[in-house]
User: What shape does this take?
Amino acid sequence: MSKTQPARGMRDFLPADIRKRNYVIGIIKKVYESYGFEPLETPAVENLETLTGKYGEEGNQLMFRILKRGEKLDISQGEKGLADLALRYDLTVPLARVVANYKNELPRFFKRYQIQPVWRADRPAKGRFREFYQCDVDAIGSSSMMVEAELISAVCEILQRLGFTDYKIRINHRKLLTGILDVVGVPKNYHIDALVELDKLDKIGSEGVLNGLMGKGISEKEGEALIFMFKRLSMAPTMLSIFDEQNKISEFSEDLRYKIHKDSLIGSLEKAREILSGSKDVQEAISDLIGIVNLITSEKVISTIQPDPSLARGLSYYTGTIMEVNVPDFAGSLTGGGRYDGLIGMFGKDAIPACGLSIGLERILYVMEERGMFDKLIAEGRLKADSADVLVTVWDEKTVGESLKLANELRSNGLRVLVYPEADKLGKQFKYADSIGIKTAIIMRDEEIAENKVKVKNLQTSEEETFAREEIAEKIKSR
Amino acid sequence: MSKTQPARGMRDFLPADIRKRNYVIGIIKKVYESYGFEPLETPAVENLETLTGKYGEEGNQLMFRILKRGEKLDISQGEKGLADLALRYDLTVPLARVVANYKNELPRFFKRYQIQPVWRADRPAKGRFREFYQCDVDAIGSSSMMVEAELISAVCEILQRLGFTDYKIRINHRKLLTGILDVVGVPKNYHIDALVELDKLDKIGSEGVLNGLMGKGISEKEGEALIFMFKRLSMAPTMLSIFDEQNKISEFSEDLRYKIHKDSLIGSLEKAREILSGSKDVQEAISDLIGIVNLITSEKVISTIQPDPSLARGLSYYTGTIMEVNVPDFAGSLTGGGRYDGLIGMFGKDAIPACGLSIGLERILYVMEERGMFDKLIAEGRLKADSADVLVTVWDEKTVGESLKLANELRSNGLRVLVYPEADKLGKQFKYADSIGIKTAIIMRDEEIAENKVKVKNLQTSEEETFAREEIAEKIKSR
Assistant: This one.
């Protein structure tokens, strides 16, 4: 007898899980498609050389490698020569490979979404799995800030449709970060280290960050100046915060609210431009960010945007805008991404501008579950929790055919119909229906069949009603 | 610069491919759900010990094994100790594992479908891939022939909805095969070999099969008797064939056609029962098959059923009914399956009755592509071939915001809208739309914006028309 659990860090998804996952994935797909993003899928398995060297030392450690097969397997050479393939580690490297491989078939501007699992041999922990889904959306081929504006607008639409109302979209710019470091005088080769430390400002406070910076070899004076600068920018006073305190904004018209939010965002950004007027990088960054804000046309979207100069994100491949979506009751981000004009060209000769977001499907599912959002969706009838709308019972061996026939009639009317698979006591059949969440049962005994009627039992109230056979589909649908 | 092709035998699916695949998968899901089948998903990666020994020698050869990681990797012991995990090889073993692992959470009768990729290190060939999808549907927990009848009915519904009209569902029974071999006197230990040979009767004819049987050690006399018996059963004369020859049936009423098909099927089966009256196995098999036919309630379904005593199917785990779906222009089967009452219990203590079908998604896609069925679906507007319903052009930098705003208005009316990502010459924007199959473009210059109007260009005819902004969504939808 073998072990029956799934492999370590992997999960089986039973029907109730899949329904929730598919509900969320369905909304993500629908919104992305409404923006003209097209679906792409790539194989789970890639050539090892396609993935090697793309994810740094950590990626090399965590990649699942596949053993060579048959004669190709040569253990005499040690670890070398054991593996030739590996499991997909993210969706960005496969995208870059696809863009290079099909450059003559893909449109000049390629907007794609991809929702597939990736595999990482991480130590499993609460909310961390070895197989998990990524939902990536990327727009390839344009440097226009319209791309950022549409990505932000689409992700807002998705979160709103899922029922989130309290998310914030933090935006920043790689060049704003570089600019600040330059202005303060941090040498280029310390930039990455400095950003990693500054990213913790929210969590560990000024003193912790200062110690961290000094530990990385940055002088106390530069460190203090850096922290001051970040705090100064974050605190840039805005019209909005004054209004907000007085709780006035919600009473205004949508148009006015839109204007107030927009002016306020542009005000903060102009303030930052003033403070850091010495840096060309900063000027470019602020122009980009103001450009994005100017292209956000909806109050619902603009009211969620927060410029955040301390937002760094770990990955070093970003070249422009950086974005992250957060909710108050979850420590990590629900979505993150930005512009990376260097990465997509890695398999080709030319640099290709690109910008994208990755929605953390597992995290969204986790927060929705914790908040009881799925229960609400089920209660509202927007998410099905049952395997069928109705159970057709089987009275005896002779009437089985009539039960099957009725089931097909109901199915052709759009109902999901389960037929009890054997003739058995009705009580046992009702109990089974109840155990799998079905609320309606249909009874067809000889007398009902003879009169061309059908008896319907409400399994929650035990009420029974008899209807003409041709009415029955509509009666069940109207429940 | 790395290689940009996918790994050997694996495929990238570009948007046009995905749309076709999703169309077919969508119909399969919808029909299975209308029968009360529930979705299940299992991890791509299983513990090696879960899969080992389940697929015979071939499976062991073709399984993709995953290299152990970090300290667990010990190459000093040779091949042993190199791998601890493997990629999913089919969907049946994971189902058996799930049924054992969640026996307290799953319903007594568990009807599940599972549509996921599996991986086999087969030699790639035309139509044979190393990553391919399986669509399995199985009903666990009941020995009733209602299960078979519903599986047949569901697969017919799927094929009809996909547009197939010329498929046949061949049915046979494991015990009918055993019974025939017993009656003829073939010793038990030759049964499997004999069935493998008899399965070729269609392809290589009597003489070829006889030589094959003798090559396996079966005597000439037994071999001849076997072939005679199979031919005799296949030729059992039916009312149907007489009517069919005269091309009369199609003129009859649906009820009468149903009756004729059913009587004819039962007639052939009764004939076989008579011929093989000496075998208890045969009597059981015929009872099961007649039971199934009696439970098929639709003319559309019953007219596709063909009892075929030579149908063996390779897999040795079947215990009862065997089923296969074929179309004339494809050599293999589009769907196959049967009853396997021993297999699901392999991870537990108890034998659990089960019956299922596997739809060959890749084969169905292949036949539909070859027959031009997708082109027809696209022409009829039932399958979208374009990335968006409309392209909103961008006149200049100042009007970008208005273009984005209009796009969102159209999206909230249910349209899929692509916005050209940059201000550029209109001709270039039209050309781009055309290159990706979009047939309608929208123009918003300063004058249109000032008058709250929108210009619509038909990119196929170059006709332009101007509408009030609030009408535009409906106008585009009605095209």
